[in-house]
Amino acid sequence: MYHSSSRHCLFSMPEERPSKTQRKKQMHDLQDLGAELVELNEEQLASVELPERLLDAVKEARRTTKFEARRRQLQYIGKLMREVDPEPIRSRLDAWKSVSRAHTARLHLLERWRTRLLEDETAITELMRDHPHADAARLRLLVRNAHREREAGRPPRSYRALFQLLNETIEESEAGGERRKA
Description:
Blueprint: H1 20-39, H2 42-47, H3 52-63, H4 67-81, H5 86-119, H6 123-130, H7 136-152, H8 157-181
């Protein structure tokens, strides 16, 4: 149905622009990204290049303790985020998160090895097979001492030392693997 030849069809497709729902989601995403900026430590925040107004708003949010005031400040940060390209910020945060996830995964690996060494006598053999440069005698000594400490209720010095030795052993294996690749 046309009103006149100079007007558009009433049923024509509107220009491609985001729906209200999409715009709202984008605003919330930017606000969440801003909230992540607020949680960064000083060194990390300094390394992210932010416009001065946004940086000031992030610092203000850090100082704000009252819930409602902080919520409003985070909304303001979200509004300011619309003026910057969020991708460099997002990629920087993602890089830090992946390093953190890798570090956490490594700690879990070390913890699993320590638990296995303390619970299973054959675990040392398996560890030696996977990491031939490991100091088997020291591993056995630390495992034996960790058992004794636990039974006697003493501080877990050998338990901690076992974790450190495992960390050094696995780190050395990874470094050796990198040298072989190069």
